[in-house]
Amino acid sequence: MILYTRLINLLKITMSISEIFSKAADYAKAILSRFGDLIILLVVSIIPIINLIAIGYYGRIIKDSSDSQAPPRLNGFWALFVDGLKVLVAGLIWSIPVIIIFLLTFIPVFSMMRWEHMMTYMTQPTALLRFASFILLLLMFVIAFAVFILAGIGIVHMFKTGSFGKAFAVGELINIVGKIGLLRYLFWIIVAAILGTIVGVFNMIPVIGWIISDLLGIILLIFLARSIGLMYDMATMRPATQTQQPAGQPPTPTSSPPPPPSPP
User: Fold this and answer.
1) 143 Cβ partners below 8 Å, 6+ apart?
2) Band of residue 14 on the pLDDT scale cut at 50, 70, 90
3) Nearest to 71 by CA among 216, 219, 191
């Protein structure tokens, strides 16, 4: 019974995310009809620092309305540059705990490796040192992956709310990941990694491979930005508010008034 319930839940997750991917694919294909915007994105994407404009554009896609059928127009380049800079700064801030964890893990592991090398000249066993090193490395990867998950949804939360500080609202981010569903979010990450690898293969084609790869990369990033934006909207969807009564009119009674008492 438990296995059946898990299979049903997995089927629901697959169906919902496939619908999101279908909408995101139709959304991303619309950029092909705007060849000028696509070429501009290609040019700015390959220029250092200027490529922050492209990053900001993907952020604009993230915060685009869920009812939109096509990517927004490529305009307001300074605003896009500032948004891309926010993503860069947020990413650097989120990388700080990962760097600290790496240093706190690498130094003990390196020390243990040197100690193990010294102990090869002795008769004492080194299995405990190896096990401790493995646990520390495993802990580092788990924490780094958790930070990566929160950082990704934090940037989405930043664009959706329009507040830079919301990128680091850990409590809100954990709540949003819970509403999206960890399995659904991990599935999105796996799909993004697979598609990114496929696009990267085109870079191996001589001469024109990098152009094909970059063009496909732009379409892929539009697709991923749109799909994660839709996932966020679905997770944070609020119930419809009640219709307000027009000004100057008395409120509509919810039930008919009781009949007047009959005369004795």
Assistant:
1) 97, 98, 101
2) low
3) 219
